[in-house]
Amino acid sequence: MSSQASVSIMVALEDEFDIEFPDHMLKRSVFQSIASIRAAVDEIQGRATV
Predict the structure, then answer these.
(1) DSSP letter assigned to residue 23
(2) Who is most buried in 9, 13, 44, 49, counting CB within 10 A?
(3) Does residue 50 or residue 18 have the better pLDDT?
(4) Is residue 44 within 8 Å of residue 19, measured between CB atoms?
């Protein structure tokens, strides 16, 4: 995924879930798959991932 696509997805997720990605999560690995994105959103929302 391009950097521009990652930013677009990040902004859409922030709007949809009323969250903000912290600086330490602004890296390619967080946006490499749906599972890693979901884990990041769960972490931001304070939910443990399994």
Answers:
(1) G
(2) 13
(3) 18
(4) yes
